[in-house]
């Protein structure tokens, strides 16, 4: 199976014994978080970033998979990373952030969580309640990709949004939401003030329901949804490393 350029999984070697599982978003690619991963690796962290099932081939393939497949993808990457580090962190963009929360719920040994514009809930839409039925008759809708303020950057992502994929994300949202109170790890959330894909209400809904004693929010003033490729990306890179070093101890 040929994987489209930009969707390939990546793995970076760090210098110490700490690792970050880094997860891309729905219909997106690992390119959206690759520069972040490179920055983490240069800062001493081992990094593992899987390609989620159905991504990197054609959009129709996303409709063939379920949320359980995506959870297996990140679980496999987690164990691969865990085999070479002692301390684990998890981070993600959009649905990748939702999967990061799911991993933190499942693995309390994960030491901290970093989210960028995570997909706890969608914007209200009259068709959303119909998605469980629509997915059988409507394969896709227009794309939600490349919500980037910088006009010189284009996200590598599918040009259609698979409807059964949306249904699976909704299932994941419900699964994660029901267990949010189980999360006790330190949590850092980056949120764009202007995000045309996911609402800012996701921040308060997450912060108010997790049981973490450390809960921090950094607002991004000059980026849209794919902030890891936008004007504020270096804020994400630098502040996430500062946060992880504060939680885990400075690298020698």
Q: How far apart lie the N and C ends? A: 42 Å
Largest sheet: 7 strands, mixed
Continuous helix count: 8
* Oligomeric state: single chain
Strand percentage: 15-25%
Give your account of this protein's structure.
It is a single chain. The chain is α/β, with parallel strands linked by helices and 252 residues long. It has a single domain, classed as Alpha/Beta hydrolase fold, catalytic domain (Rossmann fold, 3-Layer(aba) Sandwich). Helices cover 35% and strands 17% of the residues. It has eight helices and nine strands. It has helices at 31-42, 59-62, 67-82, 95-106, 131-134, 163-178, 201-207, 233-248, and strands at residues 10-12, 18-23, 46-49, 87-93, 112-116, 140-142, 160-162, 187-192, 215-220. The strands form two sheets. The chain has a seven-stranded mixed beta sheet with strand order 1-3-2-4-5-8-9, with helices on both faces. Helix 4 (95-106) runs parallel beside helix 6. Keywords: Hydrolase. The record marks 144 as: Important for substrate specificity. It comes from Thermospira aquatica. Substrate binds at residues 26, 95. This is Alpha/beta fold hydrolase.
Properties at a glance:
35% helix, 252 residues, Rossmann fold, alpha/beta
Describe, in short, the structure shown.
Helices cover 35% and strands 17% of the residues. The chain is built from eight helices and nine strands.
Write the layout of secondary structure elements.
Blueprint: E1 10-12, E2 18-23, H1 31-42, E3 46-49, H2 59-62, H3 67-82, E4 87-93, H4 95-106, E5 112-116, H5 131-134, E6 140-142, E7 160-162, H6 163-178, E8 187-192, H7 201-207, E9 215-220, H8 233-248
Parallel strand pairs: 2-3, 2-4, 4-5, 5-8, 8-9
Antiparallel strand pairs: 1-3, 6-7
Helix pairs in contact: 4-6
